[in-house]
Amino acid sequence: MHVFALLSWPFYATIVGIKLCLLLPLLWKWKYPLSTIPGPRMAAWTRLWWSKTMYFGRSAEVLIRLNREYGPVVRIGPKTVIVNDPHTIRRVLAVNSGYVRGPWFDSLRTDPRVSNVVSERDPKKHQQCRQILAGAIWMTLLDEQQRSSKESKSEFRLNLSKVLPYLSMDIITHICIDESFGNVMTDTDQYELLKTLTTAMVVQQYRASLPELNTLLLWIGRLPMLRDVMYPSANSPGGLGQLMQILEEKVRQKTAATHTQSQTRNMLDSFLSKGLDTGHAASEVLVVLFSAVGATAYTLQGIIRGIISNPSVHLTLQREIDMLVRDQGVGASDLVSDTPLRRIPYLQACISEGVRMYPVITQLREQVVPPEGDNLHGYFVPGGTFVALNGHSSQFDPTFGNDLELYQPERWLIDDRILLTKMQRNLDLNFGYGSSKCLGANLAEIEMNKTIFELFRIYSVVLGNPERPWVSRGDFVLADFNVILTKRSPHGQTNGVSCS
Ligand code: HEM
């Protein structure tokens, strides 16, 4: 019998039957039991649509639209749903909720072999990491004033997307290793840390959007010859390798000095006193640098944009600042500590509104549903499903009132204490919650208070390019946020540019 005689219809039918048998469970797994949850059509089959959204810089806008269009639970991947309700987000992130971090967090590793505080998925190990870091950050919390403007001209243009990350970097390196990098003074991105942060963020987001690809890359990255190319180490080419060498050298110096000097002073000292080895201590410092700089610089830019886009807000803020300066008898070059700044209601309202309007958490930060499953807004989601947290959309919750697309500090100046407490709780989600709460929130608050206060005390600020205030790619890395600063007179009147 000729071999082609085998290719008759019963043969084809058998092949198709076998394929269907193999494929159906797979299709079933893809489609169900999340099939009742609404969402973009492609999402039931693949997460590639999300990678495409990021590529076009539309992630922030799409995150807001998703829950608006489909409701409080949206299916965004074959195995992933996203929620935006602040109460549900808190429930998922609560300590002992049963939820654990998903493979999304593997994309935050700086070493394929070892996890760090932001990427650790094992709840116990994560808590241990947090304890070490929390102690270190609290102990070394900014205890001295930082002032770093070398400009003395009365009017000048400044690119805040460059200057604010430089400032945050100088502050955090001072805290971590007792040595400010001097980015602001030299107007240089020392060790190309910001350049690395900017590109690493893009890579991390794509890797996080495709967990299977990330698992493969983690595996490849363990090969010694590729590790130094794919992950930061003292052997990495360029500025980051140089920085790792410096950090490791600092660790070695500290270790050598331990016999003569046992007092814990900076964050590095604190890590070492907890028994971290050289490589681990250096890479945790790097993680703190990355966590602190991008988030703080972005939030500051958001707050400033909100203030200077609204002339009446700008004017009211300066009036309140001037009042404090007068009441406290503060001289033109005196520095004001953080405590009185927390008592200027309008300053605090401007900061809160900026944090709300420009949330740092533009990413999915997926958590895994506990084995018994969970009920999310009436939908059953089985154990193992990934639940992404829509931090962006949570800041448009009705608790915050009306006109949520508008920057309105006044929404925070109400008499209703109960409502204010609810608003504050929802706002606090911008710093994470429960087992993942930001470890630098206190430091971030000090930086925000002091930067905004000093900036508007000394200068009047206007947008350099009102048509396109900044260039955003949908995450918290911004470019070209240019502003024009005009020095104010010591009694609080603007020289030149008016705010009307
Ligand atoms: C306005 C500025 C900041 C914002 C909005 C912010 C926001 C956040 C958020 C949302 C998380 C939670 C991440 C998660 O869910 O896994 C987080 C974690 C973290 N933040 Fe911040 N952060 C800011 C500034 C800082 C600063 C200044 C530092 C360092 C001194 C810092 C250090 C950390 C660390 C170490 C973690 C990891 C905690 C963990 O994974 O357990 N952050 N931050």
UniProtKB/TrEMBL annotation:
<keyword id="KW-1133">Transmembrane helix</keyword>
<dbReference type="GO" id="GO:0005506">
    <property type="term" value="F:iron ion binding"/>
</dbReference>
<feature type="transmembrane region" description="Helical">
    <location>
        <begin position="6"/>
        <end position="28"/>
    </location>
</feature>
<keyword id="KW-0472">Membrane</keyword>
<keyword id="KW-0812">Transmembrane</keyword>
<keyword id="KW-0408">Iron</keyword>
<dbReference type="InterPro" id="IPR001128">
    <property type="entry name" value="Cyt_P450"/>
</dbReference>
<dbReference type="GO" id="GO:0004497">
    <property type="term" value="F:monooxygenase activity"/>
</dbReference>
<comment type="similarity">
    <text>Belongs to the cytochrome P450 family.</text>
</comment>
<dbReference type="GO" id="GO:0016705">
    <property type="term" value="F:oxidoreductase activity, acting on paired donors, with incorporation or reduction of molecular oxygen"/>
</dbReference>
<dbReference type="InterPro" id="IPR050121">
    <property type="entry name" value="Cytochrome_P450_monoxygenase"/>
</dbReference>
<dbReference type="GO" id="GO:0020037">
    <property type="term" value="F:heme binding"/>
</dbReference>
<dbReference type="InterPro" id="IPR002403">
    <property type="entry name" value="Cyt_P450_E_grp-IV"/>
</dbReference>
<protein>
    <submittedName>
        <fullName>Cytochrome P450</fullName>
    </submittedName>
</protein>
<keyword id="KW-0349">Heme</keyword>
<keyword id="KW-0479">Metal-binding</keyword>
<dbReference type="InterPro" id="IPR036396">
    <property type="entry name" value="Cyt_P450_sf"/>
</dbReference>
<feature type="binding site" description="axial binding residue">
    <location>
        <position position="438"/>
    </location>
    <ligand>
        <name>heme</name>
    </ligand>
</feature>
<dbReference type="Pfam" id="PF00067">
    <property type="entry name" value="p450"/>
</dbReference>
